[in-house]
Write a structure and sequence with these properties.
This protein has about 450 residues and is mostly helical. The protein has 16 helices and no strands. It has one domain. The longest helix has about 35 residues.
């Protein structure tokens, strides 16, 4: 089912489109939560810390891939909004070629750098081997992750956010069943959960490909569409690379911060790992609204419906602020209890650190709402460079905490890294938003007068 974002109530269109995204994000998180719960409950807290130690390194490479493929969808959404289906097919074909080529390169780079990067961020020796095993298996499946995210992003660009949700549900169920089978029956420990995640991603790719073949003729590429076209590739990379760099720069900051967390020992690593899982859960709604706003903006920009764009960003921002307040209350009062799900041993030492981490975040969730709305809005308008600026600001915040505050104020300072990054990223985004809003108003007035 497609949502035509060029018609009807703008807010209703964004909400209808975002609901499957929210559920899809939950099931995407379910991959990671299943890994953490199975490892933490049925292996050990040290194994859970190993999974957490891989997180920032994994985010650097995987974040680049996801940002790139999600950025590829914006030109497709704009051309679909303009009604140029031939350009949609050509753009998708070039995106497929770029995705396959870049996935091969990223796999080679990530495998070569896996252990050196884990050492670089001071991963404790006790968990280094488990962390490297988990990372290597995940990196071998980068091609599946990239292809799925690219295909799902293209489906969403056409207004179909429900099908990727269905595929994620199926692959998540497979992932959980395989987690339990590999760990409890075959005793593969941490390697088993990584293999289960890889298989789940591969299943999602197959399902997306079958749907495109059967339901979406505008994405039926020919051989000529797969041949790289300089103009098309430039349009794809002009959006994909900034988004990829933004996520990569943010991940570099997380790697630097992880090195600071690692210095406080295994309990701190496990606490931040468990706390981050809970944080990701409450981020689902705000993140989905942001992505939906990006697709809405791109489609309506292609159709030159500028008044709809201006109206929607104001309403979605107010909605996201309200959601951020509810998220803050959840983190403050329920976060520690949810963290306990992921812990088997040493809970008395780890849970107080989880509580400190989550309650610190809760005080600043309004800043994350600003970040999600205006970063995605500006990306939908085609201003990909704003992602890089926001990512650089986030990097500064995390580096400041890791190198200046953590040594002086301890673990409490580490908890401020996220909020510091959000607030610094908000500054350039808001400045650019108010500048571009004036231009949108002029375009809206010119369109209305014709």
């Amino acid at each position: 089912m497609r949502v035509d974002m060029r018609k009807g109530s703008p807010v209703a269109a964004v909400l209808r489109f975002s609901l499957p995204l929210m559920l899809g994000n939950i099931f995407q998180l379910f991959y990671n939560l299943a890994d953490a719960a199975v490892v933490g409950r049925y292996v050990s807290s040290a194994a859970l810390a190993a999974v957490g130690a891989v997180g920032p390194v994994n985010s650097l490479l995987v974040g680049f891939a996801m940002g790139l493929t999600n950025g590829f969808a914006i030109p497709v959404a704009e051309r679909f909004g303009a009604g140029d289906l031939q350009a949609v097919r050509k753009t998708f074909g070039n995106a497929l070629t770029l995705t396959l080529g870049l996935s091969a390169a990223l796999t080679a780079v990530s495998l070569a750098l896996s252990r050196p990067l884990l050492r670089l961020i001071d991963t404790p020796q006790a968990i280094l081997e488990d962390a490297n095993t988990y990372a290597v298996i995940l990196y071998c499946s980068i091609v599946f992750m990239m292809l799925y995210n690219m295909m799902a992003a293209m489906l969403r660009a056409l207004g179909d956010s429900r099908s990727p949700l269905i595929f994620l549900i199926l692959s998540s169920v497979i992932n959980v069943l395989l987690d339990l089978f590999f760990v409890l029956v075959l005793h593969w420990t941490i390697a088993g959960v990584a293999v289960a995640s890889a298989i789940g991603n591969a299943v999602s790719v197959v399902l997306c490909a079958v749907l495109i073949y059967r339901v979406h003729p505008e994405l039926h590429v020919r051989k000529a569409d797969l041949v790289p076209d300089a103009k098309v590739c430039r349009s794809l990379l002009s959006m994909g690379l900034p988004m990829a760099l933004q996520l990569s720069v943010t991940a570099v900051g997380s790697m630097i911060l992880q090195s600071a967390v690692n210095r406080f020992g295994e309990f701190a690593v496990a606490a931040v790992t468990a706390g981050s899982r809970v944080e990701n859960i409450v981020n689902v709604t705000m993140s989905a609204l942001g992505v939906s706003l990006s697709t809405f903006t791109a489609q309506n920009r292609g159709a030159k419906l500028y008044n709809r764009i201006l109206y929607s960003v104001r309403r979605i921002f107010l909605l996201d602020l309200a959601i951020s307040l509810l998220a803050s209350l959840f983190l403050w009062f329920c976060g520690e209890a949810v963290c306990s799900i992921f812990l088997k041993d040493f809970a008395e030492q780890i849970l107080p650190l989880c509580e400190t981490y989550l309650r610190t975040l809760a005080c600043f969730y309004w800043a994350l709402a600003v970040l999600f709305v205006f970063r995605n809005f500006l990306q939908g308008l085609g201003y990909g460079y704003t992602s890089v600026l926001a990512g650089a600001a986030e990097l500064v915040g995390r580096v400041l905490v890791a190198f200046v505050l953590a040594g002086r104020f301890g673990f409490s300072a580490v908890c401020l890294a996220g909020p510091m990054a959000w607030m610094l990223a908000d500054v350039p985004l808001l400045c650019i938003y108010f500048q571009k809003r004036r231009r949108l108003k002029r375009l809206a007035a010119e369109t209305e007068s014709k």
